[in-house]
Amino acid sequence: METSxxxxxxxxxxxxxxxxxxxxxxxxxxLHHGFKVTILTATTPPAYQFLHSPEDLNIVTLPPADxxxxxxxxxxxxxxxxxxxxxxxxxxxxxxxxxDRTRTLFIADLFGTESFELADEFRMPKYVFFPSTAxxxxxxxxxxxxxKEVEGQFVDRTEPLWIPGCKPVRPEDxxxxxxxxxxxxxxxxxxxxxxxxxxxxxxxxxxEDLEHGTLEALRKNEELSSLVKAPVYAIGPxxxxxxxxxxxxxxxxxxxWLDRQPRESxxxxxxxxxxxxxxxxVTELAWGLELSGRRFLWKVRPPVEGGQADAAFFTGGSGxxxxxxxxxxxxxxxxxxxxxxxxxxxxxxxxxxxxxxSHPSIGGFMSHCGWNSTLEGITKxxxxxxxPLYAEQRMNAAFLTDEAGVAVRSKELLALKKRDEIKNMxxxxxxxxxxxxxxxxxxxxxxxxxIEVGGSSHKALNLFIQDCMSKLQ
Length: 473
Ligand code: UDP
Prior knowledge:
By secondary structure, the chain is α/β, with parallel strands linked by helices. It contains 18 helices and 13 strands. The strands form 2 sheets. The chain has a 7-stranded parallel sheet with strand order 3-2-1-4-5-6-7, sandwiched between helices. A 6-stranded parallel sheet has the order 10-9-8-11-12-13, with helices on both faces. The radius of gyration is 22 Å and the shape is globular.
């Protein structure tokens, strides 16, 4: 009988938002299921203190692929990532050919399915890791049909986009690559959905109770499941629980500041690893926070003109220093820092987000609704202000407000959000006994149940492992 450990090779596309949940998946497979894991990553891994010996967790950084000759300099973020992953195939092939592939399976994240041909070549079962919602997966898989059936731009429609068995998607909430069908990213997105259908299974960072109807549709709706083809395993929430990213609790000024604030009194404001805003929007946000009179901890990024909301995705875009007054002085309203110094803290550097959200004095979260941030917020029972910027974040915001009932959202989808509306949203989320807080608590409890031994996500992961073992015999 074969006794060596199962080995998962996980391919990770650029972006901290892609790397973090893959690291959580690796941790779960190693700690609870006795795997060895190799992460092949196109992101320079953050300086986390990894919890495992190098024999169990091996992180291989792929050399950057030269995409300059095959891509327009103004290409969208989505296109850049898709092309980089395609152009990385020879490096991925080399890395696979050099490793011990005994009892090895291949997991690619959503941008990596074009490397399935390599998994076939090396005779490895191949799975997708989709780090987001079942709803986003269903749109992605169904887009190949919408592509044939819908004429004109999706955003010009007045009717929602229908996905069999699932909640429809309002045209204004479609994912970025569907905003303009003439752009290369649209074809990349259609291709991504088709690629999922080539896998042996799809792992999702969600759980049964949160998205039961959509998960059922992905499995049982004839039209949708015939596109997805493979079993769907809801194994989430994989959330930032064990990222010891060099956080020295006693010396981290955000945490020591939070220690001095009353329980559930502080709104944490952050727009992910790369979200940026215009100067006018930063000004309105600053005024909205100040006028609300509430306490806040704001991870701010210098504004970007031209409205490119994902401008800092590859760089993080932070300034240095704790408060970096000289950076902030250039774009925050005159006197803002002085007037709010008793209730607010503003930082520009990378924040220890998971530790911050876990702090008892945090009472609400203003977020761009990246799925990792969303999970990190709702698993701490935090009501949210949903402020989507790019990617699938508008769908996530719609889910949080309309379905989960844990968030408020601005009426302004694309136009400038004004200070009075921001002030009101902050007030309603930070209200002590608001129904969103209760609902967030219920979701937090259902998440914990899903991942405990015998819970739905725990069972799903076991089913996935059984499937791997049967294919590797
Ligand atoms: N993050 C962090 N510190 C920061 C900004 C972001 O730790 O200052 C982490 C955050 O906790 C989350 C990830 O970066 O795990 C961002 O992923 P998400 O899906 O929320 O959004 P993205 O950045 O991919 O748009």
